Amino acid sequence: MEWGPRKIEDFVGFIEMPVWQKAHKLVLDVYQLTASFPRDEVYGLTSQIRRASLSVSANIAEAFGRFQRMFNNCRDRSLDLSKEADRPEGLSLQGIHY
Asked: Which of 18, 67, 70, 96 could lock 91 by a disulfide, CB 3.0 to 4.6 Å apart?
């Protein structure tokens, strides 16, 4: 196993990311801790703390998905451009004639 930081594109899913795993553990810990809060705080402080902890892991997952789409779009565009350059008509579109 490789140690140290990994690039985001090395991960298949956000669940593999150590930062998401830590955020998920935070959610579990917060839910366990807030279970002992008074019943009259269920819709107040308890709910606010739980939603805040959930938003951390949700934002990581959302950012991962956004990055993957952006990365895939750039990769696909690069592949399209390389295919275009291989075709004679692609070269003529760029002002190169042979």
From this structure: 96
Enclosing domain of residue 76? 15-93
**Both ends of the chain: CA-CA distance in Å?**
51
Provide the domain count of the chain: 1
pLDDT band at 1 (very low <50, low <70, confident <90, very high): very low
In a domain, 52, yes or no: yes
- For residues 49 and 26, the answer to whether their CB atoms sit within 8 Å is no
SS3 53: helix
Cα 52 from chain centroid (whole Å): 18
Residues making up the chain, counted from first to last: 98
Q: Mean pLDDT, to the nearest integer, of 19-43? A: 91
